[in-house]
């Protein structure tokens, strides 16, 4: 079934590789249902990465996400959550270069922390992040 995922080009890549990443998004057959450019607040960054709260890199991760404008999107496609994760590739670009050389992280990520793109890990997180970034004020 058609699915929506939450996807984001992180500040490190939004500056330098936005057009190339958007080209890959379109070539992979995603529809861009919503898109905006916005610098995240630290609060928003912490929400998107709440699963990683408490990890040693969490503060750095949040800083890195709030350092400049991101490209924030809702992508639609069959199996969108999983397909976007595959297009991003593994978290660590060094691993991505070996195992998924066509992936966004293999081609455009700087290192494991500044790794070019974000994507939701499951449908529930996707819906929460979409609501958080674009949402109307629905009660939940
Ligand atoms: P992602 O997998 O999309 O979501 C969690 C993020 O935390 C990950 O991308 C990296 O940006 C960051 N991250 C994960 N593991 C590490 C690590 N070992 N060192 C630094 N940053 C990390």
TrEMBL record:
Boundaries of every Nucleoside diphosphate kinase-like domain copy: 4-138
**What's the domain of life for this entry?**
Eukaryota
**Transmembrane spans:** none
> What's this protein's family per the entry?
Belongs to the NDK family.
- What is the name listed in the Swiss-Prot or TrEMBL entry for this protein? NME/NM23 family member 8
Q: Which residues of the full protein are shown?
A: 346 to 485 of 485
């Amino acid at each position: 079934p058609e699915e929506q995922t939450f996807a984001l080009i992180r500040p490190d890549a939004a500056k330098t590789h936005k057009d190339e990443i958007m080209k890959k998004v379109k070539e992979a057959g995603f529809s861009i249902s919503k898109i905006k450019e916005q610098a995240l607040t630290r609060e928003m960054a912490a929400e998107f990465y709440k699963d990683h709260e408490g990890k040693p890199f969490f503060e750095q991760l949040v800083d890195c996400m709030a350092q400049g404008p991101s490209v924030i999107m809702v992508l639609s496609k069959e199996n969108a959550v999983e397909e976007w994760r595959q297009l991003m590739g593994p978290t660590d670009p060094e691993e991505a270069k070996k195992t998924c050389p066509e992936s966004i992280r293999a081609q455009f990520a700087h290192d494991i922390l500044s790794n070019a793109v974000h994507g939701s890990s499951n449908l529930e997180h996707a819906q929460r992040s979409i609501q958080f970034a674009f949402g109307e004020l629905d009660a939940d």
